[in-house]
Amino acid sequence: MAPQTSSAPRPVADGPKHNSLGLRIWHWANSGLVLAQLITILFLFVIVKVKTLAPEFSQVLAEKGVNLPAQELRGLTRIVAHRIWDWHIWIGITISCLLAYRVLVSFRQRGGQRTAAKIGAIKARAAAGEAGATKALWVRYSYRAFYVVLGVMVVTGLILVFEDYFRSIEHWAKEVHEYTMYAVIAFVVAHIVGVFRAEVTEEPGVVSAMINGGEPAEGV
Ligand code: HEM
Ligand code: HEM
């Protein structure tokens, strides 16, 4: 048996990993915060249903002989809403800083770690007639679309945070922010289902590559 020496060729090229450390940090921090952001909305509009609290409190008090109209209780229920909105705002500001960090990361990625290189490699596989490469290309484009969606959430969210300076467009920003949320939900659901599917079918190890970086990127 041939002795193993340190100069023995390695099965994969040395070089930067497939997913850079910066991208991985951004990915997990951002996904946790986006999920947390969706949870704040779930609490406000579904679980606690803050808007219906005042009439319900008023009804319970009336049964005990205390007459306090819902209108007067709104000040109290607003305290609950404000507590949840405070979380939404601070998580939102952190997501905004993370998006700026993601832009910096894109400048620091090397060779095959760059999105353009990843897309180029998939295009080459598609041109060579590899089955599934066209789908992989659409998955990549969906990431680009998500960055645009996230950008819209951040810009409209910041307008709402600093609404005192943007009174004329505040209403518009609220509408855009609210409707774009559905695009966020659609991406998150499709992405998580897609990633799980890829992991158990054609791309085992895709999730761990987003944790440990994966094999060194090719062509660097
Ligand atoms: C709110 C939740 C999430 C969001 C917003 C999100 C967003 C993204 C984005 C934008 C990318 C592309 C990164 C890039 O290359 O520029 C990505 C990649 C990836 N995500 Fe997520 N993600 C979320 C949750 C998850 C979860 C829960 C998992 C694992 C179970 C996961 C696993 C992955 C993997 C494995 C990739 C790399 C896929 C590939 O190389 O094609 N993500 N994610
Ligand atoms: C990315 C995920 C996000 C989701 C799903 C989300 C969702 C929502 C929804 C549904 C509303 C209610 C809009 C309405 O009342 O019509 C809202 C309000 C708001 N969002 Fe977001 N948002 C996200 C990100 C952000 C970010 C990044 C920021 C800030 C930087 C932000 C700041 C705000 C503010 C300030 C409000 C108004 C709060 C108030 O009425 O007091 N959001 N968001």
From TrEMBL:
GO cellular component, one term: plasma membrane
Compartments (UniProt record): Cell membrane
Organism from which the protein derives: Hymenobacter rubripertinctus
InterPro entries assigned to the protein according to its UniProt record, in alphabetical order: Cyt_b561_bac/Ni-Hgenase, Di-haem_cyt_TM, Hydrogenase_cytochrome, Ni-dep_Hydgase_cyt-B
A biological process from GO: respiratory electron transport chain
Keyword Cytoplasm recorded: no
Major place of residence: membrane
Cross-referenced Pfam families: Ni_hydr_CYTB
Entry membrane topology: Multi-pass membrane protein
GO MF, one annotated term: iron ion binding
Classification via Gene3D superfamilies: Transmembrane di-heme cytochromes, Chain C
Membrane-spanning residues: 25-48, 87-105, 145-162, 182-200
Keyword entries, A-Z: Cell membrane, Electron transport, Heme, Iron, Membrane, Metal-binding, Transmembrane, Transmembrane helix, Transport
Residue ranges of every copy of the Cytochrome b561 bacterial/Ni-hydrogenase domain listed in the record: 20-213
Keyword Protein transport: no
Family: Belongs to the HupC/HyaC/HydC family.
Protein name: Cytochrome b/b6 domain-containing protein
Tree of life domain: Bacteria
